[in-house]
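Hi X.,

You mentioned you wanted examples for the new student's onboarding notes, showing what a folding record looks like when two proteins sit in one file. Here is a clean example. The first protein comes first, with its sequence line followed by its structure tokens.
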Amino acid sequence: QVQVVESGGGSVQSGGSLRLSCEVSGTFWKLYTMAWFRRSPGKEREMVAQIDRDGGGILYRDSVRGRFIISKNAAENTVYLQMNNLELGDTAVYYCNTNVDLKIYWGQGTQVTVSA
């Protein structure tokens, strides 16, 4: 059984910062990529950032590049998303996504709300 648990969401004013965390736990052989997705009201879920198991292969969607930083602690199977200079358009439920043993797992999501 694999568990994916996000934390760190909340409410912040425009220009502020938040740090999301996602821990993968349970019994498995190999953790591959880890990524953050988000879903804003009325929109499709979209990929925000992705990182490989060795910390390489980092990808960002254009709208967050330069503001968000994805990183991971391989020893703890944890991925982070440092979100700086948050904008109103970043308001969404953020989901952690991971490929474990070639299966995709999702967390339950954490709400991020950015206000003016």
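Then the second protein repeats the pattern, sequence line and then tokens:
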Amino acid sequence: QVQLVESGGGLVQAGGSLRLSCAASGSGFSINVMAWYRQAPGEQRELVAASTKSGSTHYADSVKGRFTISRDNAKNTVYLQMNSLKPEDTAVYYCFVAGVGIPGSSLWGQGTQVTVSS
């Protein structure tokens, strides 16, 4: 069984930085896509950044130049470095993975709160 454990959320002032981590544990799986989504109160969940095993990345326009997604394939871990944070970045951030050997082919993390004060 595959499990995701997220960490790194918290409260930060505008202009500050946070780094989120998401580690997948278990056996018998191979992850292709690792991504971060976020959901603010009253809003739909949206893609923030995604990374494929081959190395390609995608960012939402709202975070380009401020956020960086990276991954350690050997550790099945994905990171989201968030710089120059803005109050509108406040949301619950969810890790998402997709690949072979994962029940349902994809899995969500439990979410971690990021709050940016002005």
